[in-house]
Write a structure and sequence with these properties.
Layout (H helix, E strand, L loop, with lengths): L1 H32 L2 E6 L6 H4 L2 E9 L18 E2 L8 H17 L6 E13 L3 H6 L3 E13 L10 E5 L1 E3 L2 H9 L4 H17 L7 E5 L3
Parallel strand pairs: 2-4, 3-4
Antiparallel strand pairs: 1-6, 1-8, 4-5, 5-6, 5-7
Helix pairs in contact: 3-6
Length: 217
């Protein structure tokens, strides 16, 4: 009787493993089918002769309540906000802090006489999940937001609202593990990329616009 029970348990374990393996393979195949072109893109960079007269006195990041959020650890959750680069918590607050930090660091060299404020509204912040890092053949941090500069004293707009796409190839597998070992975590890489994007848009750094091919959501 015990032998039969052991055989049943063994078969149950094998079936469960095969189902999980099949589900993972199916998800990877589905993800691979989502291969496409991604971009870092924005309108022509602002005139540095103008932006270098600015001094950014405030940065406001808005994450609309209408954006959907998920902590689901699947390959590509179909939501607007996916972020696992910080401990579990308020994901809206976490990505707001990342973008604000990047914007402040990008603009700290602007020491002009005109005080301005930078307003950022997030449209999408879809980073990668732990299972995608572990098992996906490739992945993308898909980040989109609108940015606008205002005169800090008068509140008048100095730029038009600009949609900025700041996609970044994500590291997966052994490459991701090796990068994390030297401090290049998902959060560090995303923040550094956003700094470069803000600098490029403001005309105070290299123009980082470009496209790349990868699998992703």
């Amino acid at each position: 009787m015990q032998a039969n029970t052991d055989r049943i348990s063994s078969w149950a374990w094998i079936v469960t493993r095969r189902v999980k393996t099949f589900a993972t393979m199916s998800a990877v195949v589905l993800l691979s089918a989502c291969s496409g072109q991604w971009a870092t893109d924005y309108d022509a960079p602002l005139d540095p002769a103008v932006t270098r007269t600015w001094r950014v006195s405030s940065v406001e990041v808005m994450v609309p309540d209408t954006l959907t959020v998920s902590d689901e650890n699947s390959f590509a959750p179909s939501v607007d906000i996916v972020w696992h680069g910080d401990p579990p918590g308020d994901r809206r607050a976490q990505i707001s802090a990342i973008i604000e930090d990047a914007a402040r660091r990008a603009t700290e060299e602007l020491r002009g006489g005109r005080r301005v404020s930078l307003s950022v509204t997030v449209a999408q912040f879809h980073a990668v999940t732990p299972i995608a890092v572990l098992r996906a053949p490739g992945a993308v941090h898909n980040i989109i937001f609108a940015a606008q500069v205002f005169d800090a004293a008068k509140g008048t707009p100095l730029t038009q609202p600009t949609m900025i796409q700041a996609d970044l190839p994500a590291l997966v597998g052994e490459e991701a593990f090796a990068a994390a070992q030297i401090g290049q975590t998902q959060k560090v890489r995303v923040t550094d990329h956003l700094i470069a994007v803000f600098k490029g848009w403001l005309g105070i750094g290299p123009d980082v616009r470009g496209t790349f091919e990868s699998v992703g959501r």
